[in-house]
Amino acid sequence: MTNPPSTPSTDTAPPLVHPSDRPTRLPAGETNAVGWTLGLIGDEWNLLILRYAMLGVRRYGIWRQELPISHAVLTRRLNVLTEMGMFERVEYQQKAKRFEYVLTRRGRDLWPVLLTIWAWESQWVPAHPERLPRMVHKTCGRTFLPTLMCAACGRPARARDVTGGFGPSGTWSRSVPAATTRRRSSSAEGAGMFPETMALIGNRWSAALLGAAFQGAHRFRDFEQRLGAPPTIISDRLRVFCDLGVFTQIPGSERADWQSYQFTDKGRAFYPVVMTAIDWGQRWFRAAEGPALVYTHRECGQDLQVQLTCDQCAGVLRGTEVLVENST
């Protein structure tokens, strides 16, 4: 297997036109839905800008006020997010030509991904530079965690409950993030709200290794063969995942000196982030050949239909029913 191509230039705009109200049609043989999705959510500034947009922020000055972000970085991210169909640029003042950035249907539809990232970080990453807000389900009035379910049968959809893998447009090389911006530096002022999420999906090799693990790869050789990455990169990513407590090393079943890398509870808990991101991506980015990934829910034997429910009342979650409250 050949190495994935390098990520596109960080200073260029997305090469496709992305309509905000209907799926983007992707050319055959090029970056698939997974790559486009990772290019978007694998950038922490994008996630932070979208998080505030979900809370009602529309104007440039408010983002500058709320985030430790430079003029150049914010301008570039807003331009890219607009070009990707996440925002619509709407003039609100004619005299001095000022614009608001209004979430489109595509942008609003990303809320399950942001919600599952928040839930995982709040439950599994105790040391945050910023205090995470509380999420309340308006229907039952209680703080909650989202539960990943199959909408076809109403049963849980944990990693062990789902089978599948690459579809017609799914290859490792085509799933490389179509990034157009540089990921926020971990040393940036006011470290972000999603530090460990970025360690898992903010690097193209990390994201690929995570995907391979959820597809059943366990040994060093498995990761090396599937990803086509240099051994030093595989070693480094495996070390990071173990340091984060996402993987644990156990002796191999064939030989004790062949280490096997298995998900911990923390690692398995990241599965809803992966599946909501794939679900969003494949609804909004459609390759000519077909989906990049296909999954079947073992319980009902049907294609997995991603749905989030409240762990307190079992009600189906909707973006308009999630209330954000600052922690005290």
From TrEMBL:
<feature type="compositionally biased region" description="Low complexity">
    <location>
        <begin position="1"/>
        <end position="15"/>
    </location>
</feature>
<feature type="region of interest" description="Disordered">
    <location>
        <begin position="1"/>
        <end position="24"/>
    </location>
</feature>
<protein>
    <submittedName>
        <fullName>Helix-turn-helix domain-containing protein</fullName>
    </submittedName>
</protein>
<feature type="domain" description="HTH hxlR-type">
    <location>
        <begin position="26"/>
        <end position="129"/>
    </location>
</feature>
<feature type="domain" description="HTH hxlR-type">
    <location>
        <begin position="191"/>
        <end position="289"/>
    </location>
</feature>
<keyword id="KW-0238">DNA-binding</keyword>
<dbReference type="InterPro" id="IPR002577">
    <property type="entry name" value="HTH_HxlR"/>
</dbReference>
<keyword id="KW-0804">Transcription</keyword>
<dbReference type="InterPro" id="IPR036390">
    <property type="entry name" value="WH_DNA-bd_sf"/>
</dbReference>
<dbReference type="InterPro" id="IPR036388">
    <property type="entry name" value="WH-like_DNA-bd_sf"/>
</dbReference>
<dbReference type="Pfam" id="PF01638">
    <property type="entry name" value="HxlR"/>
</dbReference>
<keyword id="KW-0805">Transcription regulation</keyword>
<feature type="region of interest" description="Disordered">
    <location>
        <begin position="168"/>
        <end position="189"/>
    </location>
</feature>
